[in-house]
Amino acid sequence: MTIPETFIQELIARADVVEVVGRYVQLKKTGANFSGLCPFHSEKSPSFTVSPTKQFYHCFGCGANGHVIRFLMEHAGMGFVEAVHDLAGQFGLQVPEDDVSPEERARAAGRRQKQATLSDVLEKAGEAYRKHLRESNTAVNYLKGRGVSGEVAKQYGIGYAPPGWRTLAGVFPEYDNPLLAESGLVITGEDGEDKRYDRFRDRVMFPIRNVKGECIGFGGRVLGDEKPKYLNSPETPVFSKGRELYGLFEARSALREKGYVLVTEGYMDVVALAQLGFPNAVATLGTACTPEHVQKLFRFTDSVVFSFDGDAAGRRAARKALDGALPFATDVRSIKFLFLPTEHDPDSFIREFGAEAFSRFVGEATPLSRFMLDAARDGCDLGTAEGRARMTSNVRPLWSAMPDGALKRQLLEEIAGLVQLGSQALTDLWKPAAAPARRASAPASSSPMDDWPPMPDGDWEPSWTPDHAPSEAGGGGESGGNRPFKKKWEKGSWDKNKGGGRWGKDKSPADSAPRGRSLPIGRSDVAARLLLSNPAAWEALSQEMHGILCDLPGVHGQLFAWLDSQVHEHGAQPWVALREGMRGHPFEALADKVMTGPDGAPIDVGADLAAPEAAAELRNVLDYILDGHLKAQETEAIAAAGTDPHALDRYRALQARRRELLLRLSPARNTS
Fold it and tell me: Which family does this protein fall into (predicted)?
């Protein structure tokens, strides 16, 4: 989805940053500006300033700054598109979307209206539940018995659903309103039965809020030992238990103050921990921890601690959480697993041993790397070849799910030591088998791509037109857009065999194809432009390609590594959001260069290429980058042939991969 930048600028100009920030931070007028305690770090004296004239906020303590959309993204944990829609909705504005049909736009508007209506219904029910709690001595005594104070109950909006079958009929006079069933508050009869009754009865009620603070569902706990102990709202248009976390809205400020989030298994764990000095706890909602949960948590903190019971069920839950966390285990994040003694939950542990002991226990939690290796070696006898082979098989999908970085590479060395294989041998074992060469005439002693002209990262022009006619001489041409670059050679600079070469005598590639916009940039620049224009394409790349791009020297590698983290944390964002997020980074100038046209105006990322053409161009440029990487590995393999008995096997596999690349990049040459 592409949101025009003109609309974004208009929205920022129309919004009152003081009003929006003031919903989350208590502001006091100080001269021409407003000040308050910074919501992004813990402080006792206000250093957070909001300027109504500049429509800008800045903290002199931690350096946080930006406009109103950035505030919603950073503080409320919204994605860019979500923040724009949220802000636009406050002014009754329709967000224009360049690549969305009118029908889809109307459907999206209908969904947003339905979500707002359902949230209003749920909020009204929550108010009724809180009123019922004040009137129920039984429910109040239950909470007091669990050590929950009135202040904490108010903070989390806890209420009580009385035991009657149709209590909500007194709250909603139109008890047959379909919205009550659609929101999950009321259960209706099957097969057209005219039967309706409250879903939640005789339960302590815990409102589930999204990151904006809107009520999207409930969790209810019985007061005794009845089953089920916990009951959640069903899946609705506003609630999905695989994406939401209980207590995240209430814990946002505490996450920044404590420096980590504690993920627990139930609502009462969250509330009890807040009561005992750990307001940075959240809970999954009766489901295993998913990648969506982990991604959402890393919007607020770089450190996650999963807390589980020490029994078999707790270990199984931890194993599922590991699967969800591995794709986000970058070098700058901390992921740990805390296993409590089987006889304790967090509440009972703190009450018996104290908050300080629990803090030490959290600090000594098992790091992700250790838990991953323990999970992989479980049931494997490493004293036998069979046991080591089994661990190798177990650990491969876990290790492969991790993003490339120092942590992943260190773990490769550690895994190799445990299974008694060299790290290179292990890497070779895990590589997908190379496709067989389809060109029998290619000599085994040399690469068929080596006689192609070099492609330096120099003065190159992307070929925006994908279908180039063949050249007049030599029958080569650039058919099908499989060679997406044109070098500014002098005419006849590569006229191998005087007319039998790629372009023929006095023919340059620029002559063989229509000239597009003049933008002299290198291969890495082209890849950066295409990926910044369409960050969703990053997720479709292989782990190998991620590693190659992130390992590029200089600011190119830094830019791709930053993009990788942004996609993991926030999903695919439009260029305007990425541009805002990279301010002050060393690669900012590079990004501006590749995203700026020759006339000095920003590239219209939605207008340059149709999606299939952009995808084809990205594939081609990445294939050339991959070829350069493979060629360097070939050189390393030849150099190691004297000492490494596996070097020649690696060299042959690399040659086969390069031949496969040639078949993709030069179909015209391959069939000539």
Answer: Belongs to the DnaG primase family.
